[in-house]
Amino acid sequence: MSYQDWHVGNDSQCHPLFPPDQADAAPEKPQVSPYRVYRLLTDLEDILRAEADNTQRLAQIRPLVRHFLDESPLMLLQCPPPDPDRGWAVTKLYDEADFPLTIQLVSWKPGMVSSIHNHAAWGLVAILDGEECNRFWQPQAEGEPMAQVGEQTLQPGELITFMPDAIHQIEALGPDPVLSFNLYGETQYDQRFEYTAADSRSQPF
Ligand SMILES: [Fe+2]
After folding, report:
1. DSSP string covering 123-138, please?
2. How far, in Å, from the CA of 16 to the mean position of ligand 1?
3. 31 CA distance to ligand 1 middle (Å)
């Protein structure tokens, strides 16, 4: 089990962050146990109200999510198996109209490859099981191929955060489904795009 954290900026560059157990400067972890979804949600709401900068928000949110996952060993059991035809499945743990947070458990069938896309929202993905390759892309001039600017394979226990304009593509590696915990802020749907590797022109996603 790895405890490495990663962060992907709006330029799609992926950087390693200090593992939580070495990050002396990390915000104090909540001591509440059990730390259930509703407590995570209220702490997240407090952070979003107090902090407007998405990078700072994510720095404060990471330890909360790690604590939540530590307190939720049965979370794996709530992950849906991937749909055999579609290749993936989603269970929403939380999604409420007019509240800027979505929490999902997601599964991908081995070998599945996603589109190249941004999320137009800050995001956090924690790998619960399986092995997920993240490829990072940058658009070039219209009509030119996309440029792959990085790649990072994530193992169970690793956690990655995304800025809203980060562009990535995932592939489920290995023999087992990839199961992940996904948290997203408010989506700007008119800014959410997908791409093909051969063409930097964006399509609504
Ligand atoms: Fe994504």
Report:
1. EEEEEEESEEEEEEEE
2. 18
3. 31
Task: Specify the number of domains making up the chain.
Answer: 1
Distance 119 CA to ligand 1 centre (A): 6
**What is the domain-level CATH number for residue 190?**
2.60.120.10
Centre of ligand 1 to C-alpha 167, Å, is 8
**Kind and range of the H or E run holding 38:** helix 37-50
pTM flag (> 0.90): yes
Q: Give 24's pLDDT tier (boundaries 50, 70, 90).
A: very low
Domain, as residue range, for 158 = 5-204
Q: Give distance in angstroms: CA of 151 to centre of ligand 1.
A: 14
Distance from Cα 158 to the centre of ligand 1, integer Å: 16
- Give the strand pairing for 116-117 and 159-162: unpaired
